[in-house]
């Protein structure tokens, strides 16, 4: 029983503190009323877990509270809502805060109230969007004041982009007031993260004073105080934590900044000692002493900003941008002492002591620099400083340009107060030979820890004793560490220089303050000698300005370098840079060479006066093969210069081809014939200079054959250009207008249309004369591919009217116009819009024709009053019940006089098959074609004169496919313009269709079975009786007129009398069945 009771008691005691709070204070609640005058009072861990029960109340901490690493739900979160009350930490300490995950990770998740006077210790916070020690997200109405984080860590993990983390606040949109301090590490493992010692990201204007960060910071945009800010003002800001914008698996220093590393992740933001990025910033009386490491942009104060002002700020830490970055990301790593990049920056009374790996461009920053210096060693593409009263320590690599060289100073010069002209000492600057390598420091420096050396160039094996001072008192209880270099340091601060390269020694006191000494280890050059000690005076004043010569040394190791040269007689030899000089006159002067290792050597240099160079002054010097053009028949004076001048040397002129151009003893060239020639000026001691002369005839005019060319897209055309005079030697180049892509032109003047628009083609001759041609590029028109009518056949009566509607395909055709026409206006007329009017009986074809000739037709048949037009093309009705092969005549009657006919005969392709087409007797020939698929035969007749005869135009031989079929229709049709006379006038003809009738006639007397009784029947009968072979197929029903069941001469007599109209023979007996 005791065991059971004990177990129940333990289970009861282990109920979560949130649950405990819900029942422990269900009735009595916390002490206090939660009002501003009488806030809830918090004494215990359980009390802290109750704050989320009322996020609108006011709370006050009444003692230190240990949260014992129990998972804590941030006050003000997605479930409970933002904290909107007041929480006064009252200066007490909350220790062992643990928040493991969530969008809002901190003591307070989202704050819209006031959080102040909080001290946190040994925190362990991890979040996925906003993470910090005190407030994860400080909303627009939120206030954070006077808070500290004394130890622990803040991490951003598995984040949502962007991930904002900070020691005090992750994301700030509200206000920060008072003094802040962070000693927790702040690290993000996510790309696109923003990390800061005080604030990760601030979207609101922020003004901080006397803020300090001691924790290490890692993020994409990473800053010792703020990772990413908009309008930032900082006074008295201090950072000693190390700043990084990537995670390293390994790092190796090869000396001199030649670093290599591999990463778990690569990011592309910036790393700044105080700020990673800001839109606008104003920073005063602030410093960074924390090491800065990254892969792209790094700087001692601000990595990147649009607009910034710095005053009385410095950086003492090394800044390293690594070379082994993501191969898919090709940006060069870049560093600067104070600001890496700024659109507009102003820096006053500031300096950098830190060594810079991969420094580029100007020292300290881009922008206006006044009363500043840099003493750190910079490795990278170049190093120089530009500004007013701005100076830089002489560097291993240096870019010289006029004013920049005057700013280069040696170590001894930087220790001399007289160097710093215009600087305010005592009020802004001070110098102490036992501090900061003797270089100037700021009066306002808030760092209590300083070293006797901030920078030192050491030779291999050399030793140096560092001394630490705190508040100007020498101290021994500091920790010494080495970073980024192969040097060693003892527990007492004694440095031993190892192999070549950069290194940083850091002293750390008990409070976490840091002071740095930046070392550059070199190899001394004790065996330094001059390679050349005799120079010529010929470089004195050569091209309108003083030129210079370079010193050449033997034994100058690449790690040791010259810092300065001086001359004991500048009237003979005047130093220009640390390895170049001007020769002012003949004589001997001694130069003193000072090296970074401290070595000083003196060498005599002699300036002599013998001829060493000749050149031709009025032609290009860099390349003698660049020709000087002279027009044929002209003369040109060449001038040769010899140095030194005066000299006893004489000049001899020569031409390589006298037929092209000759030269006299004075250098006067006469151009004779087209071509190139080399003219050489020689001295009697073997020097020579040469130039190329080209004899030319320049073009005087250019003109295009066409001033305007119109092309379709994709077409090309050769432009024809006339160049005068005809024998010109000029070359012509063709160019298209730069800002138009309408057309291109090649070197030969061939234009290719590329896209719709206009461009100007310019032809330019070598002499400069030009001609232009405008090229207009148009798109191909969308042509009509089909025309359809809503009616293809239509029957009308005289006087009726109906409307034909035409549809054009495709619907987006460029030209949709339709022309209406009729084949016979005496039958049917048509208006311009397709309105058809029936005029007289007959048949006409109404056509709708597109602009590009596509035609659709409607056959109109009009009944009623006959048309007065008797001219027609027709096919007679044919009666033939027995023949498989049938000749069908196509006839014309009442021929009005025509020279051209183009018409069609339509037949039933299921019943008939055309075999051949034979010409009639009217035209000399006929052209015919068969469209078997559609059952049409096209016939074309033409003549040079008008044919006026009527008769058979053509005979078409058909084969009947089925002898059982009774009737087959044949129709004739033509389009307007299908019938014309020799004057090209359109002729209207009527069209009459025909048919093949296969019925046997049953009309008595219709011997030829053509459905009528006439003289043709009598003739047919006679030939039958005469036994003509072709006339033996005769029917008893039509020929047995006297009904005696026999065909005899008596039947023929009755038939002839009937046809002649004899009385009594008008009606013959109908014996047909």
What does this structure look like?
- The chain has 1073 residues and is mainly β.
- The strands form 22 sheets. It has a 24-stranded parallel sheet that branches. It has a ten-stranded parallel sheet with strand order 6-11-15-19-24-28-33-36-40-42, with no helix packed on it. The chain has an eight-stranded parallel sheet with strand order 7-12-16-20-25-31-34-37, with no helix packed on it.
- α6 packs antiparallel against α8 (1049-1060).
- The longest helix is centred in the N-terminal third of the chain and has 12 residues, at 2-13.
- 42% of the residues are buried.
- Mean pLDDT is 84; it is low at 1-20, 22-28, 247-266 and 324-330.
Q: Rg, please?
A: 55 Å
pLDDT average, as an integer?
84
What is the share of helical residues?
under 10%
Shape: elongated
Report the sheet-strand fraction. over 45%
Q: Low-confidence stretches at least 5 residues in length (pLDDT < 50)? A: 1-20, 22-28, 247-266, 324-330
Biggest sheet architecture: 24 strands, parallel
Brief write-up:
By secondary structure, this protein is mainly beta.
How do the strands and helices of this protein lay out in sequence?
Blueprint lengths: L1 H12 L3 H8 L15 E3 L2 H5 L8 E4 L3 E2 L19 E3 L4 E3 L2 E2 L4 E2 L2 E4 L2 E3 L2 E3 L1 E5 L2 E3 L2 E4 L4 E7 L2 E5 L6 E4 L2 E4 L2 E8 L2 E4 L4 E4 L2 E4 L3 E4 L2 E2 L3 E2 L2 E3 L2 E10 L2 E2 L3 E2 L2 E7 L5 E7 L4 E3 L2 E14 L3 E3 L2 E3 L2 E14 L3 E3 L12 E3 L2 E10 L2 E2 L3 E4 L8 E7 L3 E3 L7 E6 L9 H4 L1 E2 L1 H4 L14 E2 L10 E2 L6 E3 L3 E5 L3 E3 L2 E3 L2 E3 L3 E5 L3 E3 L4 E4 L3 E8 L5 E9 L6 E2 L3 E3 L12 E2 L2 E2 L7 E6 L5 E3 L4 E4 L3 E9 L4 E9 L4 E4 L10 E5 L3 E3 L2 E4 L7 E5 L5 E3 L4 E4 L3 E9 L4 E9 L4 E4 ...
Parallel strand pairs: 1-2, 2-4, 3-5, 4-9, 5-10, 6-11, 7-12, 8-13, 9-14, 10-14, 11-15, 12-16, 13-17, 14-18, 15-19, 16-20, 17-21, 18-23, 19-24, 20-25, 21-26, 22-26, 23-27, 24-28, 25-31, 26-32, 27-32, 28-33, 31-34, 32-35, 33-36, 34-37, 35-38, 35-39, 36-40, 38-41, 39-41, 40-42, 41-43, 43-44, ...
Antiparallel strand pairs: 29-30, 45-46, 47-50, 49-54, 50-51, 52-55, 53-54, 55-56, 57-60, 59-63, 61-64, 62-63, 64-65, 66-69, 68-72, 70-73, 71-72, 73-74, 75-78, 77-81, 79-82, 80-81, 82-83, 84-87, 86-90, 88-91, 89-90, 91-92, 93-95, 95-100, 96-99, 96-101, 96-102, 97-100, 98-99, 101-104
